[in-house]
Amino acid sequence: SQAMEDLSALQDQIDALAAQVTKQGSVVRQLKKDGAASEDIAEAVTLLKKLKVDAEALKAKQDELDPSKKFNRKTFDELILRKMFVVPSFEIHGGVKGLFDLGPPACALKAAMIDQWRKHFVLTESMLEMECTCLTPAVVLQTSGHVERFTDLMVKDPEIGECFRADKLLEDAIDALIESSPDMPKEEREDHLRIQRQADAYSPEEIDDLLANKYNCKAPSGQPYSNAFPFNLMFKTSIGPEGTAVGYLRPETAQGLFVNFRRLLDANAGKMPFAAAQIGLGFRNEIAPRAGLLSVREFCMGEIEHFVNPDDKSHPSFPSVADKELILFGSDDQLGSGKTKTMSIGEAVKSGLVNNETLGYFMARTQLFMEKIGMDPA
Questions:
Q1: CA angle at residue 224 from 220 to 230, to 5 degrees?
Q2: Is residue 1 over pLDDT 70?
Q3: What's the helix, strand, coil split of the chain in %, to 5?
Q4: Which of these, 91, 98, 215, 304, could form a disulfide with 289 (CB 3.0-4.6 Å)?
């Protein structure tokens, strides 16, 4: 029908525009990395923003033509709360953002998914499963780079003690200023936008000056914000009563497997390749969780580390999945047509779209697992 043809043509436009957004985003990142002139960066960012606005407009048009494409997030959130799949933790005491309790349906669902995960991966692939401690000494995460990498600049309301991410406050303040001043001269507006684009690159002293002096930002209490300070997204604690040994709740499960590599290799009779697996809790001290279950402070993750000979990445079981079709989005398509390709993983490895058999094998096995627990492969 004509309506279907219109939707198909519109989807082609959306895909092409998505590719342009990806490509322009790469340009902006490269300019910043190369220390390009601020005028060049500003021009590239302006084009990127325009492409994103155009893309959103096309998606809105698609929603109008095909309401089935639109996901009603509010209704979904209300449903899982009403049916007690997931509820806010400590609700009767006001709750804590980013923490949720699983109700009876979700507990049963999680148990079934973990059981399938263990059967599908650990038992079928003869993996070495571990259960490592959630509490991790600081030296481990310093070595991995987490202590340095998981930081953002924060400011605090000196009266009530609430913390905020400094760069987000700066971005919001600039948005509010521009929105409230429609007649602002173009040059002044561009100056504000330039500052906004660099919000996450300022030093603590620079961002303090911008928040307090240039934009006169005030905390919810009406007082000036505190000086900016680095905030690490890992939960920090002390190990032992002396308080001298620093530890963190693990932000991921991989480190426990990596530090036990030698013992795992010995347990596997010194033979390579082999895989180690772990499923358990991870913790991220999110600054301001606002995205429901997409941004939480405690979550379960299943992780597999497959240790392989870097000179031989073939896999003996690859032929068993070679005909499995996957929807793939290669780098050329991301920057070109914006369209995905459906092909067998065997063809993808042969053509070089997927680097090697081991990677292709686990991509296919992961797809099969997702289908097994009810995900729509389309």
A1: 95
A2: no
A3: 50, 15, 30
A4: 98
